[in-house]
Specification:
Keywords: Cell membrane, Glycoprotein, GPI-anchor, Heparan sulfate, Lipoprotein, Membrane, Proteoglycan, Signal. By secondary structure, this protein is mainly α. It has 14 helices and no strands.
């Protein structure tokens, strides 16, 4: 799952970077770092870091506004000092240059990334539980019962006689009583995983949300460009007027990208994650009774005598 998440994130990041390189070249180089930070924050959020989607997205747009303002809206600005850049960053939320697009992006990503984050944390918890029960300590009584079941017949020279099924089950159930107590919680855990994987495939589709990031950013930039004169007037009042070159440079080389054909890479990543979801939940459903049936699993096979009337019952051959 983590590999599939990373694959989708890399694709979405590359797609977003290519938007700047093809449609907004004047700011492509400077926009690379904010784009990288945005997807790093998204990745950390999915992995369970103490951060929020809202803070990641708004920080990205805070960093983007000075670039859009100085490279697209007012491409004649020559002196973009640190103080002026910081002023633009700080006034971004008040000026609201990107309209509702920035908030919409927060809403869409929050819904889809939440399910992915919960699934990631749930899988980590599941691994922890399995690793813990894999090394469950045996009591002295259990150890004695296991020795009696498997090796006491050897003292009578009965090396080929194996335990009876019923006897094996009694011993194993006694040894694994504490493990079998996990049954109810494990069943509930499987149901939770099923719910989360269904959520990821339904209204909280991670693939669609990540694939739409570039489009949301493009619409946000277009909105800012369309409202350029009003933004400039407001910014001039708050941050002052920066230095301009003689004759404002044209931003005619900025070509808004309205539609991009669906890339095969994304389709493959999407199919990969969808298949993993289906295979995973199908497998996990089969393990729903795992902790309740560990004894039965251990007493099934070469450990016990199934096809013979002769077996060891703990005291004698019967």
């Amino acid at each position: 799952f983590l590999e599939a998440f990373e694959s989708l994130l890399r694709f979405a990041e590359n797609r977003t970077s290519s938007l700047f390189e093809t449609a907004y070249r004047p700011m492509a180089k400077e926009a690379a770092e904010p784009v990288k930070e945005l997807f790093t924050d998204i990745s950390l959020y999915i992995l369970g870091a103490e951060t929020t989607v809202e803070s990641a997205v708004l920080r990205f747009f805070d960093s983007l506004f000075p670039l859009v303002y100085s490279r697209l809206i007012n491409p004649g600005i020559t002196d973009l000092s640190e103080d002026y850049t910081e002023c633009l960053r700080l006034t971004r939320q008040d000026v609201n240059p990107f309209g509702h697009y920035s908030k919409n992006m927060v809403t869409e990503l929050s819904k889809s990334l939440w399910a992915s984050r919960m699934l990631s944390q749930a899988l980590s918890l599941g691994i922890e539980v399995i690793n813990t029960t894999e090394h469950a300590a045996l009591t002295k009584e259990c150890s004695r019962a296991l020795v009696k079941m498997q090796y006491c017949p050897h003292c009578q020279g009965l090396t080929l006689i194996r335990p009876c099924v019923g006897y094996c089950l009694n011993v194993m159930r006694g040894c694994l009583a504490s493990v079998s107590e996990l049954d109810a919680q494990w069943r509930e855990y499987i149901s939770t995983l099923e719910y989360l994987t269904n959520e990821m495939a339904a209204s909280h589709d991670l693939e669609i949300a990540l694939a739409g990031i570039w489009s949301s950013i493009n619409e946000a930039i277009l909105h800012a460009q369309l409202n350029g004169p009003q933004l400039s007037a407001t910014v001039d009042k708050v941050c002052g007027q920066p230095k301009q070159q003689e004759g404002n440079l044209s931003s005619a080389n900025v070509v808004p990208v309205k539609a991009v054909t669906e890339a095969p890479t994304f389709v493959m990543a999407h199919a990969s994650l969808s298949n993993k979801r289906r295979e995973f939940i199908s497998y996990m459903k089969r393990s729903r009774t795992f902790y309740a049936s560990v004894a039965e699993r251990l007493c099934d096979g070469d450990l016990v005598m199934r096809d013979s009337s002769t077996c060891w019952n703990g005291e004698d051959v019967v």
